[in-house]
TrEMBL record:
The gene is Armc10. Signal peptide: none annotated. It comes from Centropus bengalensis (lesser coucal). Gene3D superfamilies: Leucine-rich Repeat Variant. It is a single-pass membrane protein. Pfam families: Arm_2. PANTHER family: ARMADILLO REPEAT CONTAINING 10, ARMADILLO REPEAT CONTAINING PROTEIN. This is ARM10 protein.
Length: 163
């Protein structure tokens, strides 16, 4: 895992980055690896890939963070990327794999109300995706919206959003 994280830092080759991110994502399916990746500084390295200009690299980084977000300590570090993930969801092509990867991460990050306030500004985007997206997108957006609606403070923003 340490070598994969170092490889991500050392290369600019998008194909190598994609493969390293896929491997880290698969490794993060095991809870013991989630802690190891965090302790090696992997969350910030993977999070840094969200600003990459190659959509496939961003998508793979989102998938890795999604798997890593199943851990409360990891969520504490991943939450700093929520605004960027929301921007990626908003700017990604409609119904793209990149957009869906971002929505999946936001679903996990919105299970508790700890980070709802960081998603409030994206509610109009979520509602737009709900009306314009395909069924896959709609289902993922609904998961985020259901999680947000469980928080009374966020419910006000949901009901006041311009549709």
């Amino acid at each position: 895992l340490q070598k994969l994280i170092h490889l991500l830092q050392a290369t600019d080759d998008p194909l190598i980055q994609e493969q390293a991110l896929i491997t880290l994502s698969n490794s993060a399916a095991f809870s013991v690896n989630q802690d190891i990746i965090r302790n090696l500084g992997g969350l910030s390295v993977i999070g840094g890939m969200l600003s990459d200009c190659v959509p496939k690299v961003k998508e793979k980084a989102l998938n890795a963070l999604n798997n890593l977000s199943m851990n409360i300590k990891n969520q504490e570090e991943i939450q700093v990327y929520i605004a960027q993930v929301c921007r990626n969801v908003e700017s990604a092509p409609l119904d793209s794999d990149l957009q869906l990867a971002g929505l999946r991460l936001l679903t996990n990050m919105s299970v508790t109300s700890d980070y709802h306030h960081k998603m409030i500004n994206s509610i109009p985007c979520f509602l737009h995706l709900l009306s314009e997206g395909t069924e896959r997108t709609q289902i993922q957006v609904l998961k985020v919206l259901v999680n947000l609606s469980a928080d009374p403070a966020t419910t006000r923003h949901l009901l006041r959003a311009q549709v």
